[in-house]
Structure formats: structure tokens, C-alpha cells
Amino acid sequence: MPPDHIVRSRYRSASIVRHVQPYLFFYPSFLLVAVVSFLPMFYAVRQSLHAASYLEIGPFVGLANYVELLTHGGGLWNIQTSIIFVLGSLALTMPLGIGLALLLNQPIRFRTVFRTILIVPWIVSQLVTGLLWMWLYDGRVGPLAHALRQLGLNVSGPLTDVNWAMPSLILANTWHSYPLVMVFTLAALQTIPSEIGEAARIDAASAWHRFWHVTLPLIKSTVLVALVLTTLHTFNTVTTVLIMTGGGPVGATEVLALRVFKEGFQFYRMEVASTAAVVIFVLNIVFSLAYIRVLRAERA
Amino acid sequence: MKFRALARAAAVGAISALFAFSGNAQAQKIELWTFIAAGQENVRERTMAHIIETFKAKNPGIDVALNVMPWQQISPTLLRASKAGQVPDVTMLYSPSMPAHIAAGTLSPLKAYLDAWPTDVRADLVRLPETLDKQGNVFGVPWEMRVSGLVYRDDLLKAAGKRPPRSLQEWADTAAAVAKDDVVGIALGFSPEAPSIAAGWFLTTLVGSGAKVLNDDGTAAFVSPQAERLVQWVHDVVTRRKNALPQNVALQGLEQAQQLFIAQKAAFLPTSTQRFEFIRERSKLGEAVKMTDYPGFEEGRSSPALVQSWSLVIPKGAKQPAAAWKFIEHWTSTEIQVASAKSAGYVPVRRSALKDPWFQEPRAEMIRWAVDYAAKNPLRFNFPENTEALYDTWAKMFGQVLTGRMEPKAALAWAEAEYNRRGGR
Question: In chain A, whose CA is at the least distance from the CA of B183?
Fold first, then answer.
């Protein structure tokens, strides 16, 4: 048995390690996130408050860049288009993802095969998604138009139609986004004990009632996470829009994220790109907080 | 003991330093940013591999490290790299992006290097206005030229008893005459997704008609009788002539327009020379595909030739500028220019290259046409700092007109105000 002072010293050392260990794990990750995410964000905020010449920051101009973007600069139109894009995508993505997860949670044959096939759109890049759907929609050489022509229907390409460009884009984005919701929901469904469903069944609850009153409350938190992630992903989507429409026709699909890309990397107006990026960030925060608030209110 | 250990460490250090020094002296490595890899996948890669191999054979002390990236990424990445002080020794840069980089101060002037060349060697090289600043300082040397023109289906025109159009009126008539339900007359797309070909055609036709386009201070001068007439021409071809240029084609981008032609569903395709061989091969139409000048308003008076290029530049802050210049010299030498034309169909940037007998062969017909068109009738236009902003504004303007939201004159006025509000960027 070692002497008391050695035992005390070892205890003290172990105690220090116990207290310090979490910080040793936490700080490197925190620093990495700070360097990769927070610093560019602060840089963007700073640049949005200054004039700029290419990458050189000019004099401080206060909120002039925001005023310009939201008045003459077409920023309000971009925000409106982004919100339509996000809400339209969510309206299709969430029910589709949850519905498919419910189906895949049933004891059906070839479930693994279906699960694998249904997850494929998620692993396809936005670039390929854009090219694929652009080809599908093409009014002259696309397969959809060809099939419709065989039926005697002559269609114009939806991506060049002011009224149909945005719905077409939403559909393509839904195809790319639903697997995330599906995977999250399926994972949550598989944590629900089977006894709960059986109990509801014994109580003669219909399938809809079982879903609405039993299943959904149990997976709500997970669905909310999927909802927040899909919202952020759609708000920040550039590639699919850039490839499919480039914001046209006549600005019908010019979402804010596309504006950031074009202003920054095509027109080198870094001050406008930074301003629009900060607006997207604020919109992302607002939407996320709104979802969390709704969830907390329901829990309360 | 300690002394021995120290002596051993010192000896190891000295030998390492000696090796490191001799290594540096022997293998000087320059970094090249390119959108074409050196490989065997296609003619472009094989040509690049040949250029690198021959350079290394002539300059055994210099190695070339390629950093391959998508062509659209080179300009913005260079701008960011310049800010971060992490530039390559030499990079390709597309001519429309040159004025922005010259204005941003990211490129080294090449005057000192060019002055060291004999006068005839200097005069032999094609120079593009986009590679110069306002004082005439050179910042880039083109390694290939591309001339815009009108690709057409000779078989369809002959079947309809038509000749290649020599005026805009004739072009519209011919396009309408050869168009069928599943074949459009003209494949030309003004989508903001990729408007460069359509906007380039608009620019060259406009300048050819005598319109000013931009004022001396860089502000827009879009509203002119010529511009109104040209926009009206596009509008009329789209709305009044069945299938000559359908609206759903006119609102697409350049890749879809090209795809339409390759699928044998279009008779005319405005494009550039570097795509010509590719289109011939992919469409499986071969010799039936030909290329001619852009027609102007008046019969027999073509629009000027829009010549663009990929240039080689040395960024400011490059670590090995002298070795980088040797590489530029090699690539733009007559020998390599001839070899590149033969292997990949590149239009040479040295006049002396054209003396090679190969250029008299039938397969060099397109190159002869391009050089002739560019020499006889070059586009004289001071490109703005940001050509993409100009083209994007025009793409949006055509969107307004082709969807019936604005009349041509109102759309031109709107585009002019929009371009000026953005300060030309």
C-alpha cells in the first residue's frame, strides 16, 4: 500500500485529468470549426459593411450594401424566390421522405434492395442531378418530351417556361433531398418498440390514427432535425439551379444562393456577394429558430 | 562521447544540406494551372502531354507540375490565390477574364520578356486586346485562338436549294425554309445559365452594324437604332417564323443548343472553332458540317470575327517567373503551334506556323477559314473589365423580350440602366 501523500497525489492527478480531458477533446474541434466556419462568416459580415474592389476591402459604408441589395439590387425578389424554392421543396420532400420510411419499416420482401435503390439520389452530386433533370426536361431531345410526342402531345421545355421553371426545379431538388428525410425517419422508426404499435392496434386504432397519435409524436424530434437540415440544404443550393436554369427565365429561379455565387465568382462584386450571404445566414437562423420554437411549444 | 555525438550530428546535417542544395539546383519545378490534363484520354490531353514532354527534353533542369481544375474555376481561384500569396508559376487564363485580372493587379507584365525577343519573332505572334492594359502593356500570351462563326448543315441547305446566308434577312429566310417539325432552323440560346455564344454573336453583329455598345468611360450605350433592329430581328425570328428559332431553344444555354445540333435537330449553330471538330465527330455528320462568317445586316458584309483565346500568364508573386517564361516560349513556339494544330485542331497563334504545308491540306480548311476571317475582319471592341456581367445583362434583356414582357427598345433601355447601376460588374 503506497503512502498517503502518494495516494493523494495520484488522486489529484486523476482528478485534473478528468477535468481537463473534455476540454482537450473539445477545443481542437472548436478551433477547427472556428477557423473553417466562423472566421469566413465574420469576414463576410465585415466585407458586407465595406465597399470593395475585387478582393480588396474598401472604406466602411455601413448598411449601404444591404440597402442597395434590398432596394434596387433585386434582393427582395431573390429572397422571395428562395422562400418559394425552400417551401416548395419541403412540401414535397418531407411527406415523400416520411412516407417512404414508413413503407420501408414494414416487413416487405426485398426491403434492403428497395432501401438501397431509394437512397441513390442522395449520393448523386448536385451537378449530376442538375444535368440529369435538365436532360429529362428538355423539350426537344429529352425522353419525357419524346414520350409525350408519341402520345400526340407537343410540349415545350418546362425550364424555359416562366411558370414551370420553378416547379420543375423544386421537383428535381425533391428527388435529390428526400433520401435524407427518409433515412432519418427510418432510423427513428426503428427505435420505437413494437409493443407500442401492437397496443394501439389492440385498441382498434386505424393506421392513420396510429401514425398521427402514436408514431409521429415519437419521431417528431428526428423529423424536425431532418426538416432543419433540408431547409438549410435547400436555401444553400447553388449547383442544381446554376446548371438547370442559371436563374432564368427572366429571373424566375434566381434564388439568393445563386446570386451569391454569381456576384462573387462571376462578377467579382464581393461586397454584394457577402451581403447576400449574410442575408441567407440570417434566413437560415430565422427558419431554424422557428422550427425549434414550434417543437418546444408543443413539448411544453 | 558528447563531442563524438555532436560531430556525427553536424556531419549528417552538412550532408543533408548539401543534398538538399544540389537537389534544388538540379530540379526546378514550376506549377502550371490548367483545365487540360496531360494524358492519353483524348486529343487535347495527348497534345498537352507532348508539350510537357518536349519542354522537359529541352529544359532538363525544369520539371512541370500540373494542377488541373475546371476551366470556370481558374479565374476565381487565381484571384483568391493571389490574395493569399499562393499563386502558381504559370496559368492558363481565358481572354474575357483577362481585363478583370489586369485591373485587380494579379498578373505580372511580360514586357521585359517580350522585349528580349527579336522583332520578327515578336511581330509573328497574335496579340489580343484583352491581354493588354490601357497603356499597351502585355500581360498574357495566347497559346490558341478561337474564332466565332456560324456552323451549318450543308446537306440540309443543299436539299432546300439554299446557300450559306450572307445577310441576317437571308439567314432568317433560310432557317425558316429548312426548319421542320423536328428540326429547328437556328440553335442559339440566350439563357443566363451560359449566354456567352449568343451574347458574343449579339456583340459582334452589333459592332459590325456600327453601333457603339459602350461609351469611352465604360458605361453602357445599348440603346441605338442598330441594337433595336437586331433585338427586333431575334424577336421576329422567334415569334413569326415557325421553328426558325423556337422560344424554348432561344431561352436555353449554349450546351443545349449544341446538343440539339449534335442530335441532328438543328440547321445552324453559332459557335467557336474549338468545338468544330467535336461537333462534326459527335453528330456523325462529318463533312456535311461546315462553318462560315456571321452574316451582317447588309448582304455580303459579314459581322466582324470575335476572336478569343486561352492565354498563358505569370501571376504576380510567382516563385519561378524565368522558368515559367521559358515554358511560355516553348508552348507558343512555331514548332509546338504546328504540332498542336495537327493533333488537336488548335488555330495557331503564330503566323509563321501557317507556312507549314499541312495547312494547305483539306483537313485544315476550318483553320484556314478562321485565320482568314480573323485577319480580314477582326472585331474591334474594348472589352470591359467584366465581360460576364455584360453578357449576363444581355441574356436577361433577351429573356424579357422573348417572353413578351418588354418591347426591344424598352428592354435595351432597361439593360443599359441595369448595367450602369452595377458599375459594369
Answer: A140
